[in-house]
Amino acid sequence: MIRYALTRLVLLAVGLLVASALIFTVLRVLPGDVAQMIAGTQGSPDQVGRIREQLGLDRPLIGQYLAWIGGVARGDLGASLLTGSPVADQLWEKARVTVPLGILSMLVALLIAVPFGVLSALRRGRADGTALSVVSQGLAAVPVVWAGMMLVVLFAVVLGWLPAQGFPRSGWRTPDLALRSLILPALTIGIVEGAMLLRFVRSATLQAIGQDFVRTGAAKGLTRTQALIRHGLPSVGLSIVTVMGLQVAGIVVGAVVIELVFNLPGIGRMLATDVGSRDLVMVQGELLVLTGFVLMIGFVVDLVHHAIDPRQREA
């Protein structure tokens, strides 16, 4: 297990290094000049040149990349080109919104996918099972922005139960208000992602039902549901753990979009703002952290899968 973990950790580091190079390169190819934006429309070429020199943008790209990645290795993501504020501090502040939103969204997705996915498999061929499959396919195809707007209309405009947008200025010092402001965004992401995950849970459950150990349990007097719960759920759990690792990327992307829709001061909204202002250091730091988070989730999923699946341990 230790050898496997070390191997995966090396692959994680290599993947993060490759991702950092791609992020840095792509951002330098995009049109726009942050020095020109700082100087303004009236800035002379000399002023723009001095700003570029002050920001270090006149150095060779390889030198800029090595300086940045060396700082990252020391835990320093750099400072904003526009405001001078440390990237890490800004990310930490915005993560207080984005991380709870992601956790709530994942819980909603699991609460939808697991029970209804198993029920859909157990009721296969019946009216309610077919209805669940049709509804899940329809919800999985719904754009997350449209789903968010519909939930706002229902719960904020018509019923008036929840706020339509925003996050309290007091933050988590007023946890009830902060939590209320995240319910609709979390429902939006969780319903769409849960509908997609439901189909995987249904397929895994159907596969488990067809296994010999479930049929043997049923032959010993257990109902199909009892045999599945007693003997088949570990197999279903493996599939859920694997797919959830993939779903995390969808939740991260969904959070970026939903924070704009619901006007939440999280990492996604900050990323969109910094892209528009061409604050390269902020953007590359934000993208690297989001990429590292997704890769870390994949690393953890691999370890969990290896730990609970005897077939992988034997291999």
End-to-end Cα distance: 12 Å
Oligomeric state of shown chains: single chain
The stretches of 5 or more residues where confidence is low (pLDDT under 50) are none
**Total DSSP E strands:** 0
Q: How many whole angstroms does the radius of gyration measure? A: 24 Å
Average pLDDT over all residues: 78
* Form type: globular
Give the helix tally. 13
Order of helices and strands: HHHHHHHHHHHHH
Beta-sheet strand percentage? under 5%
Biggest beta sheet attributes: none
Overview of the structural elements:
The chain has 13 helices and no strands. The protein starts with a helix and ends with a helix. The longest helix has 38 residues, at 224-261. The protein has 315 residues and is mainly α. The mean pLDDT is 78.
